Amino acid sequence: MKRILVTGAGKNGFLGYHVKEAFKPYKAFGTNQDEIEKCHMIYVGSEYDLTSKEETDHMFLNFVPNIVVHMAAACGGILANKNSPADFLRDNTLMGINIYEAARKFDCNRVYTLGSVCSYAEHCPTPFKEDDLFNGYPEPTNAAYGQAKRTLLMLGQTYREQYGIGGAHLIPANLFGIMDHFDLVNSHVIPALINKFTNADKEDVVKCWGSGSCYREFLFAPDCAEAIVMAVISDLDTPLPINIGTGKDISIKDLAYLIASLTNFKGKIEFTGEVSDGQPKRRLNVSRAKELLGFEAETDLETGLRKTIEWYLSR
User: Fold this and answer.
1) Residue 24: which pLDDT band, with cuts at 50, 70 and 90?
2) 40, 75, 81, 100, 165 from 30: Cα distances, Å
3) For residue 37, what pLDDT is reported?
4) Cα separation of 208 and 26, whole Å?
5) Closest by CA position to 303, among listed 176, 212, 195, 168
6) Alpha helices in 71-131 (DSSP H)
7) Quick one: DSSP state of residue 130?
8) DSSP 118
9) In the prediction, which pLDDT does 27 show?
C-alpha cells in the first residue's frame, strides 16, 4: 500500500493547496484496479505540531505512511526572517529531525523535502549551482532559515547513508501565486507589492522596501507543485539537491513597475531603503531538474502575475 503523507498541506496552506491540485490527476501508481484502491493520500496541516517529537510520532502511528512529502516550515518574508531568526532555525530544524526520526522508527522508506534558495551563500556565483550550496555563509538577513534548510538536506543524506531512507531534496526559487499570504509585514515581495498597488489611490506614492537593485527569480507555485508530484510519482531517489525554478531573474525595481502596470497603478514608486535588500542576486541553474526529473517550468512571470492579481482582486 502506497500511503503518501504531505505535511504543510492544511486548509490555509499556500503551496499545499497547489500540491493537492497537482496530485489529483494521479489516482494511482499502478496499472490495475487493485493497486489503485491501495493508494492513499494524506494531507496534514497545523493539527500536528511537528516541532514535538511525540506529536510527530503520533502522526506516523495514525497514518503509517511509506512516503512523506515534508513541506511544513516556519517561514516568512525578509522582515520576518530578521525579527525571528532563532524561531526559524529552531522550529525548522526540529521539524526535520522529528520527521526523519519518525521515518526511521516507523519504516517509512521515502522522504521528499523542500529546501530554500536562502541556503546559498550571500555572494554565490549566478546562476546558483547545487554543488555550491555549502560554499560560504548564507545572506545574514535570512541565514537562520537557510541554515536550517541546509541541515534538512544533510538529514536526508545521513539518514540515507545510515538507515537506507530514500527520497530527494528539492530547492525551489521564490514562490508566488494564488492562495499566497498578502500581509504587508510578513509576506514575500510579490504578494506585498500586489497588496500595496491594488489598495493605493491611483495617483498615490507607493513606498517599497530596499533599493530595488537586487535580483530575484520567481516560480509560479503550480509549477513547483508539479515538480514535487513528478518527483514522487517517478520514485525519484537521489542524495543530490535539485534546484527547481525558471532560470530567469528580474530586479525588484523592474518587478515593482511590472506589478504597477498590471494593476493599473499610475502614481509614483519610491524605494525607501528602510529594509535590507538581502542577497544581491538569486538565479538558479536548473539543468539538474531537467536531467534527473524532466522538469521545466511552464509559466512565465507575467502570466503568473496576471493570474495572481486576478485571484487577489476577486477576493
Assistant:
1) confident
2) 12, 36, 43, 27, 22
3) 47
4) 42
5) 176
6) 78-83, 85-105
7) G
8) G
9) 57
Q: Which of 48, 112, 145, 215 is catalytic?
A: 145
User: What is the sign, positive or negative, of the torsion defined by CA atoms of 120, 230, 109, 107?
Assistant: positive
312 is catalytic: no
Parallel, antiparallel or unpaired: strands 67-70 and 3-7: parallel
- 176 bridge partner residues: 220
Structure confidence at residue 273 (pLDDT): 84
Q: What is the Cα–Cα distance from 29 to 36, expressed in whole angstroms?
A: 7
Q: Kindly report, residue by residue over 105-135, the tens digit of the pLDDT.
A: 999 999 999 999 999 998 999 999 999 999 9
Q: Say which residue the cell 521564490 belongs to.
A: 174
Length of the chain: 315
How far apart CA 257 and CA 147 sit, in angstroms, is 32
pLDDT digits (tens, 9 = 90+) for 50-86: 999 999 999 999 999 999 999 999 987 777 778 889 9
> Do 2 and 29 contact (CB within 8 A), yes or no?
yes
What single-letter DSSP state applies at residue 138? B
Written as nine digits, the cell of 100 is 526523519
Give the rounded percent of residues in the chain with a pLDDT score beyond 70.
95
Terminal-to-terminal C-alpha distance of the chain: 40
CATH architecture of the region 3-177+217-247+281-299: 3-Layer(aba) Sandwich (3.40)
Q: Which three cell numbers stand for residue 156?
A: 536526508
Number of other CB atoms surrounding residue 314 within 10 Å:
7
Cell of 107: 519504516
User: Cell numbers of 33, please?
Assistant: 484496479
List residues bridging with 205 in a β-sheet.
Answer: 268
Beta partners for residue 241, in sequence order: 169
| Amino acid code (one letter) for 132 | D
How many Cβ atoms from other residues are within 10 Å of residue 311's Cβ? 14
